[in-house]
Amino acid sequence: MRVDVYCTPEEVRAGDLAGATAVVIDVVRATSCIVEAIANGARAVHPAVSLEEAAVLQARLNGHGDRALLCGERGGLRIDGFDLGNSPTEFTAAAVGGRRLVMTTTNGTRAFAAARHADRVLAASFFNRSAVADAVRDDDAVAIVCAGKEGRFSLDDAVCAGHIVRALLERAADPVTLADGALAVRDLAGVHGVSADMLAGTAAGQALVEVGLGADLALCARIDRHQIVPMMQDGVITAPRA
Amino acid sequence: MRVDVYCTPEEVRAGDLAGATAVVIDVVRATSCIVEAIANGARAVHPAVSLEEAAVLQARLNGHGDRALLCGERGGLRIDGFDLGNSPTEFTAAAVGGRRLVMTTTNGTRAFAAARHADRVLAASFFNRSAVADAVRDDDAVAIVCAGKEGRFSLDDAVCAGHIVRALLERAADPVTLADGALAVRDLAGVHGVSADMLAGTAAGQALVEVGLGADLALCARIDRHQIVPMMQDGVITAPRA
């Protein structure tokens, strides 16, 4: 097995992910929300890069059944007129059970767009670290795509990637080759444990604290809270089909 | 002082480096060669992004005095018709003393292009780690730009950046704020010492071994071999002026 880690969506070039399973990470907070939502019974999450695309998607989905919920943030805060923001605390079973969600976030949805040409595209956060490692342990190629922050390396995503790489090394039956990025995040995860304090020391965590949402960090740092691995197919993220 | 690290030239956005000193790193091997060349008496290094630009630059320089030397690589190997390749062993005082060099390499020259809007642009490798830390210790903002490998994170450059950050932390009189990338490379340098074996474990090092140039890695891993910090002004790299 070969494991590669992309520090930002911009590192992914056309063709890089062919034949690989992509694991998309945006700890603070898009993939934490997506894992939480799917675990709590949301039917699907539809990532949208822009507000305009989100509105178009919602209108299209509304034509086929129940009203879809608009979710997402700009600058960390819920978008005016949206049903939900981008805090995992909002994605309760009561709020999202049985519903379709259209989600637009600053960095997370760009990472899913970059990963879309992989054979499989999975959503990961600390919430489902071990479940993700279990899901990819028999694959030939795993490409972890970190959302980063506005095109830059983001430490929270890198540390999460590293803890997934370490969980994978414990599980993989075949020898594992780690490319440069995978070596680096493995070593960062050896230095950085998972905690609200660790997240608060990163640019993404600091930005959240600055807009008064620092309480989310303790939740985002919860490891193995869920056993589910959301999967994106044809641009739609759902629970994996049996 | 704020210290930031860009994992690739592509992470640098317009305006990011205003007011900062940029430190460009391409350990394997462009900045190792540049430090070696300037330390050995080269008058100047003119980075060129393409072979075409290199030829135009050389022709222009030849019109103003001694013939400039063409240096550089593609796929790690000396370019046909060029005077020198991209091995630090070639940049001896006998070869480059008093000469102007036009240099084109795959990743290094792109990093200098990305860094050109900084207030000062310095060239760094393991060869001049401590001298670089001395040169920037009183600056308000230091932006380390890693060349990476074809737009991807490169472990050799990140480890070098980390050892420079550590040297800087020992020297800076004012408190130092480390952005996400700087935190990460500082921690990687705590795990990875500097050796030919470390470099051989990276993608850049492996690529060099594969084309039969692995012997360069032991040289590229030499720490504090030189006390000089080459500086780029108006697109030309020279020894710093007194």
Adjacency order of strands in the biggest sheet of chain A? 9-1-8-2-7-10-11
For the largest beta-sheet of chain A, the strand count, sense and barrel status come to: 7 strands, mixed
By secondary-structure content and strand pairing, the structural class of chain A works out as: alpha/beta
The number of distinct β-strands of chain A equals: 11
**Which chains share the greatest interface?**
A-B, 27 and 27 residues
Q: Average pLDDT value of chain A?
A: 96
Low-confidence stretches of chain A: none
The helix-strand sequence of chain A is: EEHEHEEHEHEHEHEHHHHEE
Helix content of chain A: 25-40%
Alpha-carbon distance between the termini of chain A? 24 Å
Principal-axes shape call of chain A: globular
Cα-based radius of gyration of chain A, to the nearest Å: 16 Å
Number of helices of chain A: 10
Quaternary structure classification: homodimer
* Percent of residues in beta strands of chain A: 15-25%
